[in-house]
Amino acid sequence: xxxxxxxxxxxxxxxxxxxxxxxxxxxxxxxxxxxxxxxxxxxxxxxxxxxxxxxxxxxxxxxxxxxxxxxxxxxxxxxxxxxxxxxxxxxxxxxxxxxxxxxxxxxxxxxxxxxxxxxxxxxxxxxxxxxxxxxxxxxxxxxxxxxxxxxxxxxxxxxxxxxxxxxxxxxxxxxxxxxxxxxxxxxxxxxxxxxxxxxxxxxxxxxxxxxxxxxxxxxxxxxxxxxxxxxxxxxxxxxxxxxxxxxxxxxxxxxxxxxxxxxxxxxxxxxxxxxxxxxxxxxxxxxxxxxxxxxxxxxxxxxxxxxxxxxxxxxxxxxxxxxxxxxxxxxxxxxxxxxxxx
Amino acid sequence: xxxxxxxxxxxxxxxxxxxxxxxxxxxxxxxxxxxxxxxxxxxxxxxxxxxxxxxxxxxxxxxxxxxxxxxxxxxxxxxxxxxxxxxxxxxxxxxxxxxxxxxxxxxxxxxxxxxxxxxxxxxxxxxxxxxxxxxxxxxxxxxxxxxxxxxxxxxxxxxxxxxxxxxxxxxxxxxxxxxxxxxxxxxxxxxxxxxxxxxxxxxxxxxxxxxxxxxxxxxxxxxxxxxxxxxxxxxxxxxxxxxxxxxxxxxxxxxxxxxxxxxxxxxxxxxxxxxxxxxxxxxxxxxxxxxxxxxxxxxxxxxxxxxxxxxxxxxxxxxxxxxxxxxxxxxxxxxxxxxxxx
Lengths: 342, 342
Fold this sequence. Notes:
Two copies of one chain form a homodimer. Chain A has helices at 17-28, 40-48, 57-66, 77-90, 104-112, 151-158, 165-180, 190-217, 219-225, 228-234, 241-250, 252-273, 281-303, 325-334; strands at 10-13, 33-36, 53-54, 70-73, 95-98, 119-120, 122-124, 145-148, 184-187, 315-318, 338-341. Chain A starts with 9 loop residues before the first strand and ends with a strand. Helix content of chain A is 54%, strand content 11%. Chains A, B: Belongs to the prephenate/arogenate dehydrogenase family.
């Protein structure tokens, strides 16, 4: 264990695609990690594969409390409340993070229970259209952005008060955990996170479902003619509907805003296409410029000729709790930057 | 040259991504193929690379007439009319096909000039977001659907008349040409083609432009958080705007219909998301079912364990001009099937 690693065990509650992949990476790193899966058969499979996994939630949380572990909540949104209740009961002093894809409702449930002093929200921007322990894999988080929330610290700063030590330690360990799995920690406040993912993750799901449906309505001839671009565009429609529902429905306000913006563009394009001289010049130009900017910004991550992958995200080396550190987080957030802790 | 190959030279007018890739494949097959490019420098580049290419359109068409070549029109839609005029003048008896992505306006221009007796429309469902000779490549059409129109024959059949020999020969050679580049010939009438590609090609372009714009509006933080799924979903927005415009604007009536269908789904999802109990159950379920069907139908093409790629499109072995052959084309079209000619 290096001095830059998390200096306590990590306990993962929920071993689906994300929780399972995190467990695999941390175990591969030889970090002390254990976990809970509600599925007895999946837990058995993981044990047979040599992982320290159990299907008894109170026992796992008791152990987390005794070993002073950092708890990672990796269950679907609908189960977060009951897991928080169990943590209150069995692991009342443990630090907590989560990997749920929408941050407002998790943050709300944490605040409802007065647990915000030991909670730092997280969201790894990684995944596949598959789910469950059987699809978990090593290396899933490499180079991925991992959003880390800091509203609690921002509130203290706004009041001119010092952020409590316990929260700073939790924040530090969450960032260090993401570093151990080679992700890039992007500081982001809850509302900004949810507004951003509505645009770049949830709206694409809505679009993919819509495209798949309209394509399918074209019948077997349309599908026979469909090429790779159609399959790419509808790929995420292959995600289990209940996962899509959880993401989109729990982020409804931000998603409605992004969707309204999209609907306005589409209605405008529709009117111009239905005109006597059809034109989509405006949308085609705007989309091309936007795509070119997106490509340029992510270029260094994907297409660098350097043998070492270089991140295009500006980096801030942070000393949590140091002078103006919360202001530095704000600045990094505004640049879409990442933080490193040494 | 095998007896199943085209038994005459092929002359390609326009050597961009599609025309250039076709020239490369046919030349690689040792077929007699030559072409025209309006760009003198691109034509010179092709000549240096050993291809039989010229930038003098009358000369190239004269040669096609003398050698009784099959002419492939591979220019943008806006240039089709002037190429047809030049063919009328310099190659008045040659058979003609094209590779333009929308069939109604090409068909109309052909009919306006009374050239339909020697024209068979085509559209290879292959491409990349790049364009021009420099991006043309071998193997682009392998396993791709290549729509081939037969409205002329269907009209003769509807009148109870025999399809003229010249047209049958043209049709046969166009199908054979697609076989030579390992594409799969899918018979399709003009209106059905345009309705299908509106759904599976042009609407995805509109959606990608819209998503890229809405994502870009989220600023640098949203883009920093964007993962692979967003880049996949916006990939085709990287296509040159004038190419997107030509496809979408020349297929405006069919595209408006597909877009209206999509807008209705999106508006419905928006209302249900904005409700007190947000739900996108309906869209998520429909999209998932649609995507699963799409995947199942293309499964054998992409994920077959067989070392020989097997097409999932049903195949009809056709004898053009034989008994009920036009009825067989109709039936194959209704199944999204492919035809082979021996």
